[in-house]
Design goal:
heterotrimer; A mainly alpha (about 475); B mainly alpha (about 400); C mainly alpha (about 170); B: about 400 residues; mainly alpha; two-stranded antiparallel sheet; 16 helices; 4 strands; about 65% helix; globular; C: about 170 residues; 7 helices
């Protein structure tokens, strides 16, 4: 029996992204050095094609490749998220790569191929397929994280990322093996049916959780995050903190949604991990003076909020988690892109001092950054607020009062460090002895990304209805 | 209960192993004599001529010399690995012989039914590749443990070369596996039975000519033989990975190399030359070919006798005459109707292996050595793509044939 | 009887060599012991009648990957490596974790296989399974098998990208 045309059709977005990624790599050697930046158009075209295909395939939901892949509304939601992120990252990266004198072709190819892996993770309904997707996405992010080869810091962090990441994938793989041993299948739909050994299944799922917890950077598997986010090139950090995280959360959600015992088995694990993640992220962010690192800790904290939704385990909670993922991706993409721009050549200007008095020098940029920060904090009229709101409501409905209270406390903690940046930008005079970077105009691509993410943050904050409906549909696909 | 009743398989395997080892090591020893003779004649020399008639006792003398020489251990060498490496090389090479079938079907000797192979392995071909793949360790570790720059460079070169060519070696036989539909060496030979047009043997040599050429080239490189003997290029590296080895450790490397040659030739025979199948049909007009073993042995014996009487005297004459008489006796024995059918398979098999070994020596005697970068470029940029293409085309043909044309594939 | 003997032989070989891999200071020895571990595992595969796995394990891991390991390790300056001191201070944490895992294992063994509810062992003699492995890979598991090529492509791009010589900085002219 061989796969039919529908099988390929349901995997069309990933296939297109892979094809475009390969074409980028094939063309790269034939272009002259000054023309290589043009590959970004091809890369973005690939991501756009994948997006279009995702929309196209949406109407034809169903399993593919012998139930290894599930093209359902859930997959659709994540495909949108992943490929849109890839598109924006490539758009923002072009100016960055030019500035830092880094190779172009490989970057776009790796982003595209990496998003193939993430797309597969989001679509996979079977653990071995998830594993391959996870490996593809991890491997490309390892390489992207070490993209600035001459920077020592980047090398150290990339090595750390690679070693710990491989370790985590090993956990995941071992977990898959145990799940298979316990149930005789790796297909999520069937895992719950053929349980021969509950103990083994528990062990296996625990290991799977550890592997994924590493990828979403939830405590206590978060230790790599600040270093890697700080050391990686800023556009890569923007990617790292959004798409792979969303893909790993997608797998967690699918396991939680499809394998019924998983939710029960994982409940206290999720509860504890959520609480710990929020506190670790927020408390550590309080004392950071490096903005990039502060944002890294903040993204750990945000993983905690999403885990709250997972712990709640209801359909509404899953919808809230998806909504949160989208909102979070928008603001993190914008924030890191802006940080990349402000950091200047060699990414040297990253401390709070560098942001002092920014509002006077570059009012628009400062206002945009403030918007992202306020959204990350969760102020009303921003996407971040509604994300938190939906999660908290879902948590309360699932009678997780304690956890929701902890989350609220954490939001207050977050206020301190987000507002501090705004304070520096608007009310702090720069140290007169401190030599600021010459003002650089915002490159067109970066500007476009900033405009898109800022608009998205506001739009989602004011008119959440449409996206929320898609998220609800997506969460309903596990029924 | 005797030991035989308790473990019949084990005992038979042990006996077969013993016989095979004896034959293989003797053959390997005389292969060195053969090589020196042939290369000598290619270069208008006589080759070994002093020890025994036609230098026939040279291998024996060499063996004794190796045994009694002092083994020198280089300063700062890693003792354990230094002594392990030659042992590893030889034992791995010899164990590859275990899965090679030398003849068809089962035979019965002294009431024990058995086959002409030490072990019947379902995945014989893959097993052989696994063994070959391990062979590189002997060389690499020897180079490292010797604590010598030349040896280390030789070891590095050869491990790079061996793993590079191993890929094209493996890929080049994929076509055969596809055509035969099995990894079992016996089944691969069975798939080559019969004749096209009543006379042309259905060996895989014809449909897989590209595969055969790739295989044989890679095999020469894989066994580190000229013109790919870069690991031991004497003008650059003294003697490569075994520079620091002397005495019997050196002999072990030597034997390992020759055993690898024998195995590569055996495998080429099994995969491409129809194994023990006769190149001519044994029926009808060609029925007389069953007596070819007798003819060859008898002819050889006669030649030796004539040579002994005409050109030699004393000890040499005795030795040659004895050999001639032995061969004549063997010729008479294989003509007996009871033994005749048993001999056919091994006879053709060994003849083909011998021819391939001759090609090995011939190539060594006539082709100059590659430059190292050219060697790697040739392996990766020529052999590997060609072998891959061959595998792909064969796969396509097999697919088309099995599903009845293009329409069947698309359905 | 023989089966048990071979199993314990291979198992002991695998475990002891695995321990030696991480305890021996000489990198080449580590690699050699890792090879032994892999070979012993292959032996266990063979005993489980997974012939294909056995052969593939040897060809790929021992004959391919480990050769590259040895290749690299041979070039390491061993004297420098020997003088380096491990600088992390997690020995006791590690010991604790090891003890905990060992405790769990002992607990699981004490419970026995019935308590774990393990599925019954496969029947004694399987069919020659090369073909079934192939069919599985190319039919029901075709997708993971095929997209593994993307994984390899990514790895290759990465290896070349990180390994190739640094371009000289572009002149500011």
């Amino acid at each position: 029996m061989l796969p039919a045309a529908t099988d390929y059709y349901r995997l069309l977005p990933e296939i297109l992204a892979a094809v475009f990624g390969t074409i980028v790599m094939l063309l790269e050697p034939f272009l002259r050095r000054e023309h290589k930046a043009a590959l970004s158009w091809l890369g973005m075209l690939g991501a756009a094609a994948a997006l279009g295909a995702a929309v196209l395939v949406r109407s034809d939901a169903g399993p593919a490749f012998f139930h290894l892949i599930q093209a359902d509304p859930f997959t659709f939601f994540l495909r949108l998220l992943i490929y849109a992120t890839a598109l924006l990252v490539m758009l923002a990266a072009r100016a960055y790569l030019d500035r830092e004198n880094l190779p172009h072709g490989e970057f776009y190819a790796l982003v595209l191929l990496g998003s193939v892996g993430m797309g597969v993770m989001a679509a996979a309904a079977e653990l071995v397929t998830v594993f391959i997707g996870l490996e593809i996405s991890s491997l490309s992010t390892y390489i992207l994280a070490s993209y600035r080869r001459e920077a020592l810091r980047a090398n150290e962090s990339a090595l750390k990322y690679f070693l710990l990441g491989s370790f985590a994938t090993a956990f995941f793989l071992f977990g898959v093996a145990l799940v298979y041993g316990a149930t005789g299948t790796a297909r999520l739909e069937q895992v719950a049916e053929g349980v021969a050994s509950v103990l083994l299944l528990k062990l296996g799922l625990a290991l799977v959780f550890i592997g994924l917890a590493f990828k979403v950077a939830s405590a206590p598997f978060h230790v790599w995050t600040p270093d890697v986010y700080e050391g990686a090139p800023a556009p890569v950090t923007a990617l790292l903190s959004t798409a792979p995280k969303a893909a790993a959360f997608a797998v967690l959600l699918r396991i939680a949604g499809t394998v019924l015992p998983a939710t029960l088995l994982w409940f206290w694990v999720l509860w504890g991990s959520a609480a710990l993640t929020m506190f670790v992220g927020n408390l550590a962010a309080l004392v950071q003076s490096n903005v990039k690192r502060m944002l890294a800790y903040s993204s750990i904290a945000h993983a905690g909020y999403i885990l709250v939704a997972l712990a709640a385990g209801t359909e509404a909670a899953y919808a809230a988690a998806l909504y949160y993922l989208a909102a979070y991706a928008l603001m993190k993409l914008g924030a890191f892109t802006l940080v990349a721009h402000l950091a200047g050549r060699g990414e040297r200007r990253l401390t709070l001092e560098d942001y002092a008095g920014l509002a006077r020098r570059e009012p628009v940029v400062a206002a945009t950054l403030s918007l992202y920060l306020l959204s990350l904090l969760g102020l009303p009229l921003t996407a971040g607020f509604l994300g938190k709101f939906y999660v908290f409501v879902a948590g309360l409905r699932a009678e997780l009062l304690g956890l929701v209270v902890l989350a609220a406390v954490n939001t207050l903690l977050g206020a301190y460090y987000y507002l501090r940046v705004i304070l520096y930008m608007y009310f702090r005079e720069p140290d007169p002895t401190y030599e600021h970077a010459a003002r650089e105009p915002v490159p067109a691509g970066t500007g476009l990304v900033l405009a898109a993410t800022a608009a998205g943050t506001l739009l989602l904050g004011i008119f959440p209805g449409h996206l929320m409906r898609i998220a609800e549909l997506a969460a309903a696909s596990f029924r | 209960m005797t030991l035989f009743e308790a473990y019949p398989l084990l005992l038979v395997a042990l006996v077969k192993t013993g016989i095979l080892l004896f034959l293989a090591l003797t053959a390997v020893a005389y292969l060195s004599w053969f090589e020196r003779k042939v290369v000598g004649h290619i270069q208008s020399r006589l080759g070994p001529y002093r020890v025994g008639p036609h230098g026939l006792l040279q291998p024996l003398a060499d063996g004794l010399k190796f045994l009694f020489k002092e083994g020198v251990e280089p300063q700062g060498a890693d003792r354990l690995v230094y002594y392990l490496a030659p042992f590893l090389a030889l034992s791995l090479a010899l164990s590859g012989l275990a899965v090679i079938p030398f003849g068809p079907a089962e035979i019965e000797i002294f009431g024990v039914r058995t086959t002409l192979a030490v072990a019947e392995v379902e995945l014989g071909l893959l097993f052989l590749f696994a063994i070959t793949a391990l062979g590189v360790y002997g060389v690499a570790l020897a180079g490292w443990a010797s604590n010598s720059k030349y040896a280390l460079m030789g070891g590095l070169r050869s491990s790079a070369q061996m793993i590079s060519y191993e890929i094209s070696l493996t890929l080049s036989v994929i076509g055969v596996v596809l055509l035969a539909g099995s990894f079992n060496l016996r089944e691969i030979v069975a798939a080559q039975q019969g004749y096209w047009f009543g006379a042309v043997p259905r060996w895989f040599l014809l449909p897989q000519l590209v595969g055969f050429l790739c295989y044989f080239t890679s095999a020469i490189a894989e066994t580190n033989r000229a013109p790919f003997d870069l690991p031991e290029a004497e003008t650059e590296l003294v003697a490569g990975f075994h520079t620091e080895y002397s005495s019997f450790q050196f002999a072990m490397f030597f034997m390992a190399e020759y055993t690898a040659m024998v195995i590569a030739s055996c495998l080429a025979t099994l995969l491409f030359l129809g194994g023990w199948e006769s190149p001519l049909p044994t029926t009808g007009a060609f029925a007389w070919t069953v007596y070819l073993p007798t003819v060859v042995l008898g002819g050889g014996g006669a030649l030796l006798l004539v040579d002994a009487l005409r050109h030699h005297r004393g000890f040499a004459r005795g030795v040659l005459a004895l050999l001639g008489a032995l061969l004549g006796g063997a010729a008479w024995a294989v003509a007996q109707p009871m033994i005749l059918p048993l001999v056919q398979g091994p006879f053709w098999f060994l003849t083909k292996v011998f021819l391939l070994l001759f090609v090995y020596v011939w190539v060594r005697g006539t082709l100059p050595r590659f430059r190292y970068d050219k060697l790697m470029a040739f392996g990766w940029k020529v052999l590997l793509p060609v072998a891959t293409l061959n595998a792909l085309v064969t796969a396509l043909v097999v697919l088309l044939r099995e599903s009845g044309g293009l329409a069947g594939v698309l359905r | 009887m023989v089966e048990q003997f071979t199993f314990y032989f291979f198992a002991a070989l695998a475990v002891i060599s695995a321990v030696l891999v991480v305890t021996v200071r000489n990198a080449v020895y580590s690699a050699v012991f890792l090879i032994t571990t892999l070979l012993a595992t292959a032996g266990i595969f063979l005993q489980l009648r997974a012939e294909f796995l056995f052969v593939v394990q040897i060809i790929l891991y021992v004959g391919g990957i480990m050769v590259l390991f040895v290749f690299v390790v041979m070039l390491v300056d061993l004297d420098v490596a020997l003088r380096q001191v491990q600088f992390n201070r997690q020995k006791w944490v590690a010991l604790l974790v090891v003890l905990a895992v060992a405790g769990q294992l002992v607990f699981a063994l004490a419970l026995g296989s019935e308590a774990l509810g393990l599925p019954a062992a496969a029947p004694e003699s399987l069919e020659p399974n090369t073909e079934s492995v192939g069919l599985r890979l190319f039919e029901s598991y075709m997708l993971p098998f095929e997209i593994a090529s993307i994984l390899l492509l990514v790895a290759m791009i990465g290896a070349v990208l990180l390994g190739k010589r640094q371009k000289p900085p572009r002149s500011e002219a």
